[in-house]
């Protein structure tokens, strides 16, 4: 997989043929020279942490700027971080649930 959409001679978006001198795709009209900020590495990382979470993987896999290796590294990281966050939330839920049960029974939560 090439970073330069023109090298393969196809549009990064629709995969139809593109000439080396084309600035825009003749079929879908996408820009073949510069790419929107949300397909850049920094844009994807910012969106991941500010808004999208693991859903930003859609951008990773659509971005014409990502190498095959980069896509898999981002995917593995997203899966790992999501798993750790879910595990952390579940652990917190269990601790809070135990504490609430203790309070409802008129006892102080363990550790207080
Ligand atoms: Zn196209």
Query: What's the order of the H and E elements?
Result: HHH
Number of distinct helices:
3
- Poorly predicted runs are none
Overall mean pLDDT score?
87
Distance from first to last alpha carbon:
57 Å
Radius of gyration: 23 Å
Proportion of residues in helical segments: 40-55%
Overall structural domain count: 2
Note the beta-strand portion. under 5%
What structural class do you assign from the helix and strand content? mainly alpha
Shape: rod-shaped
How is the secondary structure organized here?
Elements (H helix, E strand, L loop, with lengths): L40 H12 L4 H6 L5 H37 L8
Report on this model:
49% of the residues lie in helices and 0% in strands. The chain is mostly helical and 112 residues long. It folds into two domains: 1-34, no CATH class; 37-104. Zinc ion (ZN) is lined by residues 11, 13-14, 16, 25, 27-28, 30.
Quick structural gist:
With 112 residues, the protein is mostly helical. The protein contains three helices and no strands.
């Amino acid at each position: 997989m090439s970073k330069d959409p023109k090298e393969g001679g196809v549009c990064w978006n629709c995969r139809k043929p593109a000439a080396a001198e084309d600035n825009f795709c003749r079929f879908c009209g996408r820009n073949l020279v510069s790419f929107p900020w949300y397909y850049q590495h920094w844009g994807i990382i910012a969106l991941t942490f500010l808004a999208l979470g693991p859903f930003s993987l859609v951008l990773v896999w659509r971005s014409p700027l990502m190498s095959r290796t980069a896509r898999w590294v981002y995917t593995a990281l997203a899966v790992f971080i999501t798993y750790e966050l879910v595990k952390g939330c579940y652990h917190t839920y269990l601790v809070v649930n135990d504490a609430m049960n203790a309070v409802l029974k008129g006892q102080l939560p363990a550790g207080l």
